[in-house]
Backbone:
């Protein structure tokens, strides 16, 4: 497996509390890797550490062979990691079209902006219907799609998606899920955090379970259903 992202023995403290303990995790090319764990297990903290918002006290994080610990968030984004945070980070006063376009300015270089914007809308075609609407005029599900579309327009090699299905109605989950599947068909890798094991996308290639800041399972998604101890944790 060609490694795109690798975390080795990552410890993160927030104030005096040890929030992540020795996290080891790897994402390969075109993989959809899921990080599953209960509320408060450390999923968002892991993604924030990768993006450079939190600096690990120990361990290594490498992206495409670059050591990224200590780099600034915008530098990490420019290396090619797109981040769609929990709860959809969009600009509420900008239109859908402006929200997507602004990402192409954040990470200049790479493919032309027009192509990147086109991929974002091809992934979530519904967004084309609302191009001139402001963020505040969209539903939670639409904002979620817009937030992922924004991360995509950065033209990332890899996307970090924090609970992309959270708060979505069962009817809309397959739509967002199809969009996520389309991303990997473009050759990008995904690390997806999820608290509900029933929301794992069927195309997930590997799974890590995190509990109290530690990885307690790493393997194929199908194998998790045979692991009683892990199922007790994530409530399968
Ligand atoms: N800024 C902070 N200050 C203090 N503690 C924090 C802070 N951010 C997170 N924590 C703690 O770190 C732990 C992990 O939080 P994290 O947000 O990573 O969990 P999560 O797995 O993303 O949970 P959820 O499913 O609820 O989003 C929790 O115990 C949380 O209370
Ligand atoms: Mg979280």
Residues:
């Amino acid at each position: 497996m060609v490694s795109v992202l690798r975390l080795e023995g990552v410890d993160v403290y927030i104030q005096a509390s040890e929030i992540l303990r020795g996290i080891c995790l790897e994402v390969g090319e075109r993989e959809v890797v899921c990080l599953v764990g209960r509320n408060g297990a450390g999923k968002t903290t892991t993604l924030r550490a990768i993006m450079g918002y939190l600096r690990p006290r120990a361990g290594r994080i490498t992206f495409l062979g670059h050591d990224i610990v200590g780099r600034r968030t915008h530098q990490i984004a420019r290396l090619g990691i797109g981040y769609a945070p929990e709860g959809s980070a969009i600009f509420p006063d900008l239109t859908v079209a402006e929200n997507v376009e602004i990402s192409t300015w954040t990470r200049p270089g790479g493919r032309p902006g027009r192509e990147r914007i086109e991929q974002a809308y091809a992934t979530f075609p519904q967004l084309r219907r609302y191009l001139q609407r402001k963020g505040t005029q969209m539903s939670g599900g639409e904002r979620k799609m817009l937030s992922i579309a924004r991360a995509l327009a950065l033209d990332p090699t890899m996307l970090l998606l924090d609970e992309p299905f959270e708060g979505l109605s069962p009817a809309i989950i397959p739509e967002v899920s199809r969009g996520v599947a389309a991303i990997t068909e473009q050759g990008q890798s995904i690390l997806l955090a999820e608290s509900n094991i029933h929301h794992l996308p069927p195309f997930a290639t590997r799974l890590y379970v995190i509990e109290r800041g530690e990885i307690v399972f790493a393997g194929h998604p199908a194998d998790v259903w045979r692991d009683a101890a892990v199922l007790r944790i994530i409530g399968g």
The CA atoms of residues 58 and 223 lie 30 Å apart. Residues 140-152 form the longest helix (13 residues). Residues 3-234 form a domain with the Rossmann fold fold (CATH 3.40.50.300). The radius of gyration is 17 Å.
